[in-house]
Write a structure and sequence with these properties.
The chain has 2 domains: about 150 residues, Aminopeptidase, CATH 3.40.630; about 120 residues, Aminopeptidase, CATH 3.40.630. The two termini are about 45 Å apart. It is α+β, with helices and mostly antiparallel strands. The protein is about 30% helix and about 25% strand. Strand 13, helix 10 and strand 14 form a beta-alpha-beta unit. It has an 8-stranded mixed sheet with strand order 9-10-11-12-13-14-8-15, sandwiched between helices. A 4-stranded antiparallel sheet has the order 2-3-4-5, sandwiched between helices.
């Protein structure tokens, strides 16, 4: 019996819970063949009675659907010889996550792996760049994954790897509720918050002028969401009629769900604005946690050691350069 099969057997007997793994979905190999077909649940599974029989064997799966904790469009199964062998759910416990995973007793490990792999491809096709799952992965996928627990306790240097830029994994499970954030930088008292509808055009025009139309387009996408998926830093004591000035901004859920990448700081506070950068990131992470995310990805970060020092549970994701970006600076490909 292989180590992977031993871990599988321990989990069935509830002696050990599988590790949580971070999978870069943009690095997934071509579809993996299996003895069972992995796919989204269909009406035919109800008509032929296979779904009912599976639910009878795995009552917790039946309860999950009955109480509406999972949408049928989020459920993927493996089926062979007219029998559903395993089932897996996406975006149930949190956005970008695979699980819970259900299977009949004595189900072969490859059929469980196929259900999980099918969920990963579904998340990728829905725009996610990363996913968190258990260790029930085909070997090809396991090779590109990172154990989240294994990184804990390492030094900032050990949680990093040399590259011009890289993506950072950031856990969100223990964050406090949303709170007001204010910061004083270079004599300016700034509010760090979600933009107001009345500020939308000013923000987009300001970004287009100071940072270019590409970033303005990404912010426009963030401000097209409801609610907005952006955070800005604006003068708290702006006088009536005073010209609008944007000191900093960050957009998230634009590149991908749970992904924060479009970030900029005004020239007037560069070099003295580390408190502002931190407040910007922290507010964006607060908002992602408030919307149900249990992890965030900070994309294309170049100077990251200070962040790794401040946050002992975050880490640079191996293989994330260039990742979803291209060129000499992190620009979406």
């Amino acid at each position: 019996m292989t180590k992977q099969e031993q871990a599988h057997q321990k989990y069935i007997s509830r002696d050990e819970k599988p590790a949580r793994l971070l999978v870069p979905l943009y690095r997934l190999p071509d579809r993996i063949s299996s003895i069972a077909e992995g796919r989204k649940i269909r009406a035919e599974d109800i008509e032929d009675g296979s779904l009912k029989k599976f639910s009878e064997h795995v009552p917790i799966f039946r309860d999950l659907l009955f109480y509406g904790l999972a949408n049928v469009h989020q459920v993927f199964v493996t089926k062979s010889n007219g029998i559903i062998r395993s089932a897996c759910v996406i975006n149930c416990e949190a956005p970008g996550e695979v699980g819970p995973i259900f299977f009949r007793e004595n189900t072969p490990l490859p059929q469980i792996e196929e259900a999980v792999a099918t969920c990963l491809y579904a998340l990728r096709d829905n725009g996610h760049k990363y996913a968190v799952t258990s260790e029930y992965l085909p070997l090809e996928v396991h090779k590109i994954s990172t154990s989240i627990e294994a990184v804990r306790g390492l030094s900032p240097r050990q949680r990093d790897w040399e590259s011009p830029w890289a993506d950072i994994y950031f856990p969100l499970t223990d964050r406090m509720p949303l709170s007001r954030r204010e910061v004083e930088v270079a004599g300016h008292l700034l509010e760090v918050r979600t933009p107001r509808p009345s500020e939308r055009l000013d923000i987009i025009e300001n970004i287009a002028k100071e940072w270019g139309r590409g970033w303005a387009s990404e912010m426009e996408a963030a401000l097209s969401h409801d609610p907005y998926t952006a955070v800005v830093a604006i003068s708290k004591n702006r006088a009536r009629g005073e010209k609008f000035h944007l000191y900093a901004f960050i957009a998230y859920n634009v590149t991908a769900p749970g992904f924060a990448s479009t970030t900029a700081i005004d020239r007037s506070v560069q070099g003295v604005g580390m408190k502002l950068v931190d407040a910007l990131f922290q507010r964006a992470l607060d908002e992602l946690a408030y919307r149900g995310h249990r992890f965030a990805i900070l994309g294309g970060i170049s100077r990251r050691i200070a962040l790794l020092r401040a946050s002992p549970d975050c880490f640079t994701i191996p293989g994330s350069y260039p990742g979803v970006f291209q060129g000499e600076v992190p620009v979406l490909g």
